[in-house]
Amino acid sequence: MPVRTGEHVAADEVCVSGSDDEPASDVQTTESKRKKLYLFSTTDIQTRFCLAFEMADHKDGFNATNLLKDTKKQAGKIPAVFISDGLPSYSAAHRAVFAAKNPLDKHSVHKRCLPQQQNNFQERFNGTFRRFQSRQHISNPDSPLIMGFFVYYNHFSLHERTPAAGIIIHCDDEWKTIIGNASLAARTKGARP
């Protein structure tokens, strides 16, 4: 029986450029050279399939409405449970996109004392993206490498287990479908893997 995506979704953000993780002595020099970029992403908890992502140049006041609309579109439904780290942008977007359509939908804020609602795997995904970003030196939010990372993350693995493995793709040629979808997404601005 195939796993259904989008029942339980987690959201988080990570600074992928700038000086958040650099020593204090380097902060002044890098602030002027590099602009901070933040990756906001949503992931299905059961399959770890990355449903949607968005890049922004600020964290405070970020409007997560488009991110959650992309999540709903990719999953094909409103999730039953939505877990975040408590960023106010997620609460406002949740009320606008998910709760308005499904009043039974639940938004849980990750707290250390509640192990059933942890956002740790989303934090691990953020670490994976940061390692990729640091190796590729991504400084442009429109870089095609970002889309390539998400296609690779969802569909390819050295260990034969990928987030997409739990999702059945009905097609004659899976490789052709994956490449075609990636090409289509690259041509259409705003499309997600």
Q: Low-confidence runs (pLDDT<50, min 5 residues)?
A: 19-32, 110-115
Q: What oligomeric arrangement do these chains adopt? A: single chain
What's the helix-strand series?
EHEEHEHEHHH
Note the beta-strand portion: 15-25%
Describe this protein's structure.
With 193 residues, the protein is α/β, with parallel strands linked by helices. It has a domain of 132 residues: Nucleotidyltransferase, domain 5 (2-Layer Sandwich). It contains six helices and five strands. A five-stranded mixed β-sheet has the order 3-2-1-4-5, sandwiched between helices. Strand 2 and strand 3 form a beta hairpin. Helix 2 packs across helix 3 and helix 5 packs antiparallel against helix 6. About 10% of the residues have low confidence.
Topology:
Elements: E1 8-17, H1 24-33, E2 37-44, E3 50-56, H2 65-75, E4 81-84, H3 88-99, E5 106-109, H4 120-136, H5 144-155, H6 174-187
Helix pairs in contact: 2-3, 5-6
Observed structural traits:
alpha/beta; 193 residues; five-stranded mixed beta sheet; Nucleotidyltransferase, domain 5; 17% strand; single chain; 5 strands
What is shown here, in short?
With 193 residues, the protein is an alpha/beta fold. The chain has a domain at 8-139: Nucleotidyltransferase, domain 5 (2-Layer Sandwich), CATH 3.30.420.
